[in-house]
Amino acid sequence: MTRAMGLDLGTKTIGVAISDPTYLIAQAHTTIKRSTFAADLFALEEIISAYSIAEIIIGLPKHMNNQMSDSARRAKSFGAELLKKGYAVEYQDERLSTMQASAVLMKTGVRREKRKQVVDAIAATFILQQWLDRREKQ
Fold first, then answer.
1. Are strands 53-60 and 88-93 parallel, antiparallel or unpaired?
2. CA 130, CA 108: separation in Å to the nearest integer?
3. What's the pTM?
4. Taking the alpha carbons of 70, 73, 75, 78 in that order, is the dihedral positive or negative?
């Protein structure tokens, strides 16, 4: 069975979340430390292969006025490279996902040091879950 993968692309890390095979629940998977595109792609391809990923959902960090941010342009560029490699790529508005992830981690008592390690994977989970919920309604 295939799954979807959500990505929260930062300049230093990539948060990764994976759906369950029924496409109902997103789960935080890992955080990849960014290096070169080739190294980032290699790390993602290992996950894609291991979990039979069919779709890659990339968070698109727009400004609150719906304008594309520099980060959104970088996300689109990364997605375009994945498309060239033959992967199915979609985008999900991710405004405030990192803030939501940080708030959840603080409320649950996760220590600051640990929050830094997992916040991007949790943000990727929010991105993927929003996409899964939207897909379910269609």
1. parallel
2. 21
3. 0.84
4. negative
Q: What pLDDT, in 10s, does the model give residues 70-93?
A: 888 999 999 999 999 999 999 998
CB 14 within 8 Å of CB 7: yes
SS3 content of the chain, % helix, strand, coil (to 5): 50, 30, 25
Q: Which residues of 52-74 are buried (b: 16+ CB within 10 A; e: fewer)?
A: ebebbbbbbbbeeeeeeeebbee
Q: Tell me the per-residue pLDDT of 99-128, one tens digit each, with 9 for 90 and over.
A: 665 566 556 565 666 555 567 888 899 899
- Tokens matching residue 36: 């070169």
Phi (first) and psi of residue 99, to 5 degrees:
-65, -40
Instruction: Please state the three-class secondary structure of 78-125 as a single string.
Output: HHHHHHHCCCEEEEEECCCHHHHHHHHHHHCCCCHHHHHHHHHHHHHH
Instruction: Name residues whose C-beta falls within 8 Å of residue 84's C-beta, 6 or more positions apart in sequence.
Output: none
pLDDT above 90 covers a percentage of the chain that reads 62
